[in-house]
Amino acid sequence: MIEKENTAYAYIGLEEESPLQGSRVGEVINALDVRWIVANFTLQSITVAKWPGRLYEVEVLDFVTNEQARKLGKSGLTKRATYKRALKVEVLKELPLHLLFGDLGENVKEVIDSIPFLEEAHVAVLNNISLEKAEKLYSKIWNKWLKKHDPDSYHIGNTHYNSMAIYTSAGSSPIHKAFFIISSQINKKAKDLLGEDAYYKDEENEMCLDPAWSNAKLAFFYGAMAVGTDGYLTEKEKEILKEPWVKYRTMIPPKTN
Questions:
Q1: pLDDT of 175
Q2: pLDDT for 103-148, tens place per residue?
Q3: Which phi-psi region, left, alpha or beta, contains residue 59 (left: φ > 0; alpha: ψ -120 to 50)?
Q4: Long-range contact pairs involving 184-187 (C-beta distance under 8 Å, separation at least 24)
Q5: pTM score
Q6: 125: three-class secondary structure by DSSP
Q7: 162 near 141, Cβ under 8 Å?
């Protein structure tokens, strides 16, 4: 939580239409028409609609009141809302994107940054790796995190082999919204490579990602969870959890700064 009452965080995708697009530190930005700026009070409350993007700390100079919002046909915000609809902000500083994912966010961002290199051959390799042990360790972190932040949660004790979000006072996951970004980026990569064949309709007529790609996606979930959290697993267990992603990492170009 930002300490000053009128300061907040704002995120925009690089290709997103936003009054903040192209802004510089020290600049005062006015929202265009009814396209207000979503100014979040916490980093974990930020919704990343498009990736990659830019993250700012801003001072809210003017914002939409609930009465104004209703006149525009929008609902008002409750007292529990984690953001303001800003009409005018001053850009205080640009922040590194890894802050979106917690204290070990740089590690999580490395997992996300590796997704563009994913190819069908890699997916085939990942589908030949057993995830049985990793699934249990992934669930173990979820359950320990829930016990810490929401001890009365009915989700405690469940199998969370593919969980992306369970909302608590500490956010939606141990690494905030990272799983949503990983999922959307892998979905996009599958669509780029396979076209319409990337999806199929299940028994309930819902569109689902190709099973091989869905399974490969778990390797990235597990890798991000392993490198982005601390205090939930032993070092040996962390190695097991991130092993599928590490295997993939050895098959793509080395990281460059």
A1: 98
A2: 999 999 999 999 999 999 999 999 999 999 999 999 999 999 999 9
A3: beta
A4: 184/51, 185/51, 185/112, 185/115, 185/116, 186/115, 186/118, 186/213, 186/216, 186/217, 186/220, 187/213
A5: 0.93
A6: helix
A7: no
